[in-house]
Amino acid sequence: MSFDPTLPANNSGIVSQELRDQFNGLKVLIDAQQNQIAALQAALDGKVNKAGMGEFDPGFSDPPTLADVQNIQAVINDMIVALNNG
Description:
By secondary structure, this protein is mostly helical.
């Protein structure tokens, strides 16, 4: 039985089979989410920590100069290319 958010009805008696079915339905949903999360994590693991990509230290002045803004743009472009190339 799939999870039914309307069960148990308000002020109804406790029926063990109904509650067991609800918990089993929730377990199915949780297991499906765990599988989706694992697949997403595996996909991200292949895209993160690319060689040559370290933490971004902007180190720009206030207000930023044109060179500072171009540096930020270059870093963003490099990140997009790295993510697209997997």
